[in-house]
Design goal:
five-stranded mixed β-sheet; globular; 9 strands; mainly beta; 87 residues; four-stranded antiparallel β-sheet; 62% strand
Length: 87
């Protein structure tokens, strides 16, 4: 079975109306919704969620990007994760 290099990283854009928290490659995104804390990893199925207030962690090769949100939405599709927060 051929290993797909595209499954190693996510392309993440995390933004608020007047701020970009992060844009680039990541290994994982962790956030919280009504069910609880969840992770988005490379190869994740298509996903959409309304986010609860709390901490978002974007795990990168260098250091984690951590920020608090009041609300937001997250979409994941084809290893692209988009977060729109603090709207």
């Amino acid at each position: 079975m051929k290993h797909d290099d595209n499954l190693k990283t996510l392309n993440v854009i995390a933004r608020a109306p007047f701020n970009v928290y992060y844009q680039g490659d990541a290994q994982a995104v962790t956030a919280t919704n009504k069910v609880g804390e969840f992770d988005i990893l490379p190869g994740h199925a298509d996903f959409f969620s309304i986010l609860d207030p709390g901490e978002v962690v974007i795990t990168t090769k260098s250091e984690p990007i951590v920020f608090d949100i009041n609300n937001g939405i997250l979409t994941a599709r084809d290893n692209e994760v988009m977060l729109f927060v603090n709207m």
